[in-house]
Amino acid sequence: MTAAIRGSVMSVSMSASHDFTKEPVASILLVEGSGVQGDAHAGATVQHLSRVRADPSQPNLRQVHLIQAELFDDLAHRGFRVSPGDLGENITTRGIDLLGLPVGALLRVGPDALVEVTGLRNPCWQIDHFQAGLLKAVLPRDDAGNVIRRAGVMGVVVRGGAVSPDDAVDVDLPIGRHRRLERV
């Protein structure tokens, strides 16, 4: 791994229930192999309700949801009002192109935590209940008609630790050939 990118935590959020949005809090505790302590999506196996119905034994590759604050800036220019936690993310970052990271990138978050990026978040239709037209804004299509997923990345907790706003986020990129993120 090589350290190449540095950003920061803008906000942290969690929810003990399976709500669409998560409440911003002063800090969260990432737990190795599980996710955000007290969050409805924490667990070694999948916690997303539709995925639990399909196969509750599958590994939870979506323990932590991260979104770049720059998405909120872009959405504001398009007339949307989105704040940290509104789209269900646990960690809102600034200064890192999360969507451009490869599978396996390691995020050193705060003084101790380590999160491995597993893939892209795939938002569902519920996002339009939050604000009409928002799904299309976070899932636009390129000139060839391919979907561009802009709603953040998912990861698993490799090493636990407390995370708070203004903590540093350092990215360690995998050595060798990088695999592009796909939805998880």
UniProtKB/TrEMBL annotation:
- Residues covered by the MOSC domain: 23-172
> What positions belong to coiled-coil segments?
none
- One term of GO molecular function: catalytic activity
Q: Which Gene3D superfamilies match?
A: PK beta-barrel domain-like (2.40.33.20)
UniProt cross-references to Pfam families, sorted A to Z = MOSC
Question: What SUPFAM superfamilies would the database entry show?
Answer: PK beta-barrel domain-like
Q: Which domain of life is it from?
A: Bacteria
The record's listing under InterPro entries reads: MoCF_Sase_C, MOSC_domain, Pyrv_Knase-like_insert_dom_sf
The cross-references to PANTHER family, in alphabetical order and at most eight, read:
METAL-SULFUR CLUSTER BIOSYNTHESIS PROTEINS YUAD-RELATED, MOSC DOMAIN-CONTAINING PROTEIN
Official protein name in the record: MOSC domain-containing protein
